[in-house]
Specification:
alpha/beta, Rossmann fold, four-stranded parallel beta sheet, 13 helices, 13 strands, 13% strand, binds beta-D-glucopyranose
């Protein structure tokens, strides 16, 4: 008996050497914990991301804790502290804003590696990995959707098209990538005078004053809806908008709602919706595209992103050199995607897909929706 317990002590000690690290209270020999911090639930994808990540972590034999920050960085920081106190071995974090830096510094102090998930954690030098989609390309797809929907290649200055611009949260680094990608396609048409911007016009996100004017704090749909209503009664009152650059599906649908209240844009009153972009391939937007309201979206297969992030997590925990099927390490001029302002972290990129009425089947076939949702998209 004595021998057996001595053997067990050695076993547990070995276990904690493999799975040790972190100054928290993780019991010796316990299954290592991965902490998953998601930013919000009001944009549907994050609920799925949280659930997908948890399942993928558990599939690899770890324990997983998921917390949602309700778009409140202080709340998310407290959640991260709890992960650390509980002895988390690694953190996967999609942050709310730069205020996460203090919590990431605590993780570094505890030697707990952090993977920035989908959103780059800016102004921090305390972590090494980032996994996301090519977000500049997401924006390019939005720009191309408008280019095609308005047939801008054939447009002439004597009959210009009118557009109004929206961007995502000014505190989310992705919002800048999306906008800059879109403007890389649209700005040449503005310069030629064939596309006229109604309302504030930042040529790119570095025009901070105007970018703030078109940005949507915390990606909140009611904020975008109110701004659209104000535009319709203000800057856009005297024109008919041909397009609206909307940065994601949640905001696109809020903008559509505001437009439909205006006869000019309501089919039932003889009007026509502008070409409206989106992102995330949320079911409601896929249906809206199928029904001819929203013009396009961008499918980012977040099931694959979660799986890739957890492969990365597993390799980091095991001290292996990351090698992730389906994700490319950003290099060359893309390497700056991982530039936090304090250091350049390794950025792994997955590819987005543009979705229009003709290929709504792509996310359906990828198993992105529930069976009943898929049925409605047929
Ligand atoms: C994500 C988008 C999402 C947005 C709002 C961005 O960081 O990349 O997929 O729509 O946040 O939650």
């Amino acid at each position: 008996m004595k021998k057996l317990s001595a053997a067990l002590v050695i076993l547990f000690a070995a276990g904690s050497a493999v799975f040790g690290g972190g100054s928290g209270q993780q019991g010796k020999g316990q299954v290592p914990l991965v902490g998953i911090a998601m930013p919000e639930t009001h944009v549907q994808r994050w609920q799925k991301d949280g659930a997908n990540l948890k399942a993928a972590v558990e599939k690899r034999g770890y324990r997983a804790d998921v917390a949602y920050g309700d778009a409140d960085q202080n709340q998310q920081n407290r959640q991260i502290q709890t992960f650390l106190t509980n002895g988390a071995k690694l953190l996967i974090v999609a942050n709310v804003n730069d205020g996460v830096g203090a919590a990431i510094a605590d993780a570094a102090r505890d030697k707990v590696p952090v993977i920035a998930y989908d959103r780059l954690i800016m102004n921090s030098g305390d972590y090494d990995y980032y996994i996301t989609f090519n977000n500049f390309k997401v924006g390019q797809f939005q720009g191309q959707g408008i280019e095609e929907g308005l047939n801008l290649r054939s447009a002439t200055p004597d009959s210009p098209k009118y557009i109004t611009l929206f961007a995502g949260s000014p505190t989310d680094n992705n919002a800048k990538f999306f906008f800059d990608g879109a403007m890389s396609v649209l700005k040449p048409y503005v310069d030629k005078g064939v596309l006229k911007v109604v309302g504030p016009y930042p040529p790119d996100s570095s025009d901070n004053a105007n970018f703030q004017r078109i940005a949507t704090e915390n990606w909140q749909a009611p904020v975008a809806k109110t701004r659209m209503e104000n535009l319709l009664n203000g800057d856009a009152a005297g024109v008919t908008l041909d397009a609206i650059l909307a940065p994601n599906d949640t905001l696109a649908r809020a903008i559509i709602e505001a437009c439909l209240a205006d006869a000019k844009y309501n089919k039932d009153a003889g009007g026509k919706l502008p070409v409206i972009t989106g992102q995330d391939a949320e079911f409601a937007s896929a249906l809206s595209i199928k029904n001819g309201q929203q013009y396009m979206t961008v499918f980012k297969d977040t099931n694959k992103l979660a799986e890739a992030a957890v492969i990365l997590a597993d390799q980091v925990i095991k001290g292996e050199t990351p090698n992730i099927p389906g994700a490319t390490l950003a290099s060359g001029n893309l390497a700056s995607i991982g530039n936090t302002g304090k250091k350049t972290v390794k950025a792994y990129l997955l590819e987005p897909v543009i979705i229009k009425q003709g290929n709504v089947n792509v996310p359906v076939d990828a198993g992105f929706y529930s069976a009943s949702e898929a049925e409605q998209l047929k």
